[in-house]
Amino acid sequence: MLKLTSFISLLFLTIIFLSACDRDRNHPGHSYFPDMVKSRAYESYSENPNFADSTSARLPVNGTIPRGIIPFDFEKTLEDRALAGQIFFNPQKMKLKDVKEGKELYKVFCYNCHGLKGNGMGYLFTSDRFTYQPASLISDKMMNAPRGEFFHVITLGYGIMGAHGSQITPEDRWKIIEYIKVKLQGKKLGERTISVIDDSPKESIADFEARLSKLYPNQKGVGPVKSLSLETINNKMAEEGQKIYKQMCSSCHKPTKRYIGPAPIGILERRTPEWVMNMILNPKEMVAKDPIAKELLGRYISPMADQNLSEEEARKVLEYFRTLK
Ligand code: HEC
Ligand code: HEC
After folding, report:
1. Which of 83, 155, 183, 195 would staple 165 via disulfide (CB 3.0–4.6 Å)?
2. What's the rounded Cα separation, in Å, for the pair 1 and 264?
3. Four-point Cα dihedral 91, 157, 143, 138, nearest 10
4. In the predicted model, what is the mean pLDDT of residues 58-75?
5. How far apart are CA 108 and CA 105, in angstroms?
């Protein structure tokens, strides 16, 4: 009996299985769950009756940025190009593999104009198709230019060179730059031409902080968090906070060392918990209105980025900060 049942079920399964096969390659065969084959959602480029302009592909909401993206807030001016060189840095550590990929990207995006050696003798110029010689990337000027300046030029364009920001992702831009710096200019891998940090400020960080706490004691900052009392450290929260921090903050902050922004170690000795939360959740307004945040911006030159954390996420990061020793 058992044998017969298994035989019948096996036969049945085989029939189902075979009926899914196609006789000819132009037909997909039967499909059992058409809902999974044909999307019920609107396709990216289909018409959409729900929006006034009837397009399905939407632009991001004004004033928002995707997670993990560091905004490039510079204008296409010479002043901003120089400024980008001073304060805009590659958040990733570059490896030789990136230089190799940079070479391939350079060949796609730059080589036709700037040439294999970067001297401006690209095919478009040598074949007379382009009458204006593209700049040399190995001139004294460009040998001394920091990577942030290259990033500015690639992103926004320069003179008659067009902007490439929409065609090349930020990571790929850094790879191209690293290739130019390391292979065409012979510079060291991952070198920072100008340090972010002004090493000779008139006031030491300790004096700076002492002055701030005297001038502005117990500031709660401007933002959604009005009062917050801390209990004993919750390790699970701190662990989750560390993960968020690694992903969203570590491109600018190192736990115990000054980097593009201050080190969060000991932050609650100098700021209130409310202030820290508001700084994470509402940095733009903080930098405009809160006296401490204003001073910080002056001192660290680049602004603190709004990473769009939820209040809960920010609270976890704060818990992580409390564990730093
Ligand atoms: C269509 C040709 C073309 C392409 C493609 C192109 N450039 Fe340029 N680039 C130029 C020209 C022309 C100039 C000089 C602009 C001027 O002087 O008005 C220039 C200038 C520059 C400068 C500034 C040099 C200086 O002396 O100030 C840099 C840096 C640069 N390009 C890098 C790149 C990189 C990197 C790529 C690839 C991502 C690239 N360019 C792609 C034509 C091009
Ligand atoms: C694009 C770089 C950047 C990113 C990303 C960034 N920050 Fe900052 N942060 C700064 C800079 C620069 C400052 C100091 C200057 C200022 O406040 O404008 C700062 C200041 C701060 C301060 C105040 C420190 C103090 O000593 O008072 C806190 C707290 C802070 N950041 C937390 C975070 C957290 C949490 C994240 C991740 C969710 C984050 N930051 C992501 C650049 C950044």
Report:
1. 155
2. 73
3. 130
4. 81
5. 5
